[in-house]
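Regression report. Comparing outputs from two consecutive submissions.

Submission 1:
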Amino acid sequence: MAKTSGLGWTTLSIDDSAGAPQALKNEFLSLDVSTPRATFDVTGLDKYAMERLLGLADATVGGEMAFNPTADMGHAVFRTMSSTSVPRTVSLEHSSQTLPMEMLITTYDLSRGSDGKLTSKVELVLQDGTAPTWGP
């Protein structure tokens, strides 16, 4: 397998509040994707080191964007956070590896720097109980 940089991201789309996918790869300045697994201790009294089993899978997506109030761009997609558990489909693809997930927006923050720069940060968490799986 060839090593690659983070350049040339293929797909980063997230549903807006109406459920329509919006291409946001040009909006994000940085992106963090995490797919942790819980672990639980099953160490017996006869052991001198930890024994663990894997537990539930989870996922988070977060990133920073330049503020863009244009229709179908970052602010329009994230400004409406439902008070119910209405998921947003998140689709990621890089180097022919895809990661689709149903997620909830938990944070949408705006920040104005002392230099005048206006950015937004967003965080999403896994919603539907389906383990996140990267695939071709």
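Submission 2:
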Amino acid sequence: MRKMNFFKSGLILVFTVVLAIHVFAQKTKNVIIIVIDGARYTETFGDSAHQYIPKIWNQLHPLGAIYTSYYNNGTTLTNSGHSSILTGTWQKLPNDGSARPTSPTIFEYYRKQCKASQKENYVVLGKDKLNMLSYSTDAQYGSDYGASVQTSTAQYNDSVTLKNIKLVLSTDKPHLLISNFAATDHSGHGGIFKEYTNSLKIADNLVFDLWNYIQADPNYRNSTTLIITNDHGRHTKDFKEHGDNCDGCRHIMLMILGPDTPAGIIDNSVCEQIDIAPTVGSYLHFATPSSQGKVIRSAVAKFAFENKK
């Protein structure tokens, strides 16, 4: 009898493990990162009316997770912020595109560890100076493991940037892509608040358009995680500029939606810009050994399940 009970217990254990693997097996095969450049938190999730991001809040939020305590705790400038996102390390770089990240990017990790091709990795430019994101200066990685770059004929035009994203998705079908919607930051520097918020509204519509495009494409539907964030915010007292340690520059938005992210959650735990790289690694099954960040556990099914046990 004891042997029979032991046998039955073993079968139950095996069945439970198999079921758990089946239910919580990750489905993400593609990750797209969209950076809405220079949007301040007080105009995104920090606005109780969400008047400038109605599509992101009303249509996309119920499908994914938002993070209300997400920060750039490094250099609050464009090139440094994007580089911190891609490397998982705090990067302090010239803001003119003259220097590359000093630590490996997620493109380099993905290509080296997973034998991915250059065309499976893309930087789609909204600002020309972000060409430097395609690979780092790390001696063990570098250009041999870099991403493809899609240039733009209309810098700061987010509608053109979206067209370029769609072109790349339809032709080369990359598994890993980052793009920059640059108009919000560009308008912010112009000093007219309404133009700044109008650009944010346009970016909001374009992000929603992109998600619908992803879900209509058999190659990407239900297998793509979309990460929507900012590289930096703007000064708390003067929205025209950014670059210091004020809360307006540091506190930014993060939304993640996809097949492995619980829907409709609001996570108030503190997350940082450098957490995106290891989280992407968790989705696409590669390590990010130089990263200083941590996996955002509530965004990944296997960790979300673990947290509930």
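Expected: both submissions complete independently.
Actual: both completed, but the second showed a warning that disappeared on reload.
Relevant detail on submission 2: Residues 26-308 form a domain with the Alkaline Phosphatase, subunit A fold (CATH 3.40.720.10).
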